[in-house]
Specification:
mainly alpha, Growth Hormone, Chain: A, 18 helices, 77% helix
Length: 461
């Protein structure tokens, strides 16, 4: 597809675009560090730092699963509020500010030892998690809701998404590798203590200026409940894209969530986990940096197909691989290199369904559409947390002190949950996409051409 397709809306390379490309991308650095802290280390904090017994962990994991799913279903409602917002500061920025500050406070509370145990801890922690989820959604939905409001050009979107995901990966894997090391260093003991984890959480949230285009009208519609349901359930391509992404994230997220436990209780040396995480981070960043070059040669469908096949092979090899850091690091690099392609494709697929929905339903819903991204992330993270929690309890890891305390059966359970189940989920996501998703490059170009009169900025009164 040429840059000039769809009449002059698609090929603009203005200074504003270049500025937005970098400011939008850099903003994901601290955001994803916070999200990673919660999604990757929440269970670690509960089991390794607070040392909760199995009975409490079963209740905590069940409550967290329920709370995060309820919270996920509230995300489209938050998206409707964002789409209906009109202020002097714009549509998205007020929500980004309020949601960012509030979710930062709740993040610190999630990594604070309140001194409660048993049922009181379960109740309070569940409340903290619910408030974190809602405030994070306000920030996250408004942030990603800006992406389709910055350009309708698929090439520009891919470039913006690639830069954003690259910085997000830097923040994500800085947290994956750095959090346990920092907590241990602050406390001066292996694993750290509750106070050191709270300190690390405070540092991360303190780390955590995009201008919307004005030449075309890309604001979302004011959205009530009826319009919300219509925007979601009558946009069939949005639902199929979301289903494929959810299955992929269930697999991808589960693999990542097991990393700490795999190296402590299967590999036998948790100290090398940050080194392994470096391979993971480099793989994902390299994949995002490579994507624009790969995209010039192959279509989105070809990239998705070959990446899925290669990921499946990598999972199987990983399962049978020897416990050698170099071998495991190379496999992790390959796995996350390929996964970055799919993550980026899913983001662009979701953005394209906004024009599809406007074309099909006559309404543009930026934030409502992108509310499905945190919905998917939260739902998959809830299931990831539950799978990890159930596995470490059933495998005997929660009661173990070292790898020597884990049976062969327990090791097999961890490897199966970490590698084989995710492989199946990733393939299922691909099959859903291949069977049901219809918006390819040609159809999106046609839709934008037909929508061009509507997309042109309306004169101000």
């Amino acid at each position: 597809m040429t840059d000039t397709a769809a009449g002059g809306l698609r090929g603009q390379r203005s200074p504003e675009f270049r500025r937005n490309q970098w400011t939008f991308g850099i903003g994901t650095l601290g955001r994803d560090a916070i999200y990673t802290l919660v999604s990757f280390y929440q269970v670690v904090f509960l089991t390794e730092v607070l040392d909760l017994p199995d009975a409490t962990m079963w209740w905590v994991s069940a409550v967290l699963l329920g709370v995060r799913i309820v919270d996920a279903f509230l995300d489209p409602v938050v998206g409707a509020f964002v789409d209906s917002t009109r202020t002097r500061w714009g549509q998205f920025k007020p929500w980004m500010l309020v949601g960012g500050v509030a979710s930062a406070v709740m993040t610190v509370l999630l990594f604070t030892d309140t001194g409660l145990r048993g049922g009181q801890l379960v109740g309070v922690y569940g409340l903290f998690m619910l408030l974190w989820g809602i405030t994070w959604s306000a920030h996250d939905i408004s942030y990603w809701g800006m992406l389709p409001a910055l350009s309708v050009n698929p090439v520009e979107r891919e470039r913006m998404a690639a830069v954003a995901k690259t910085f997000a990966s830097v923040g994500q894997f800085a947290a994956v590798a750095g959090v346990p090391v920092a907590a241990s260093a602050v406390a001066g003991v292996d694993g750290g203590d509750a106070a050191s984890w709270r300190f690390v959480a405070i540092v991360i949230v303190t780390i955590a200026l995009v201008r919307e285009r004005k030449d075309i009208d890309l604001e979302g519609e004011r959205t009530g409940i009826r319009e919300l349901l219509r925007a979601l359930f009558r946009n069939d391509q949005l639902l199929w894209a979301a289903a494929a992404y959810l299955l992929f994230m269930l697999g991808y997220g589960t693999t990542g969530s097991f990393g700490f436990y795999y190296f402590k209780y299967v590999y036998g040396d948790e100290a090398v986990f940050p080194v392994f995480a470096l391979f993971v981070g480099l793989g994902q960043i390299a994949g995002l940096a490579t994507f624009p070059f790969v995209r010039r040669r192959w279509s989105r469908g070809q990239i998705y197909t070959w990446s899925t096949l290669a990921i499946l092979v990598t999972y199987v090899v990983f399962y049978f691989a020897p416990l050698n850091l170099v071998v495991l690091g190379a496999l992790a690099f390959t796995l996350f290199f390929l996964a970055s392609f799919i993550m980026l494709l899913m983001l662009v697929f979701q953005a394209d369904t906004i024009e599809y929905g406007q074309w099909k339903l006559g309404r543009r819903n930026n934030a409502v559409t992108f509310a499905l991204q945190p919905f998917i992330n939260k739902t998959s993270a809830a299931m990831n947390t539950w799978i990890v929690s159930a596995t470490i309890i059933l495998a005997g890891i929660n009661d173990a002190d070292t790898a020597a305390d884990v049976t062969d059966r327990g090791v097999t359970m961890v490897k199966t949950s970490m590698l084989l189940i995710p492989a199946v989920l990733v393939v299922l996501g691909y099959l859903v996409w291949r069977a049901k998703f219809r918006i390819d490059e040609a159809l999106h170009a046609q839709i934008v051409r037909e929508l061009e009169p509507e997309l042109r900025h309306r004169p101000q009164d």
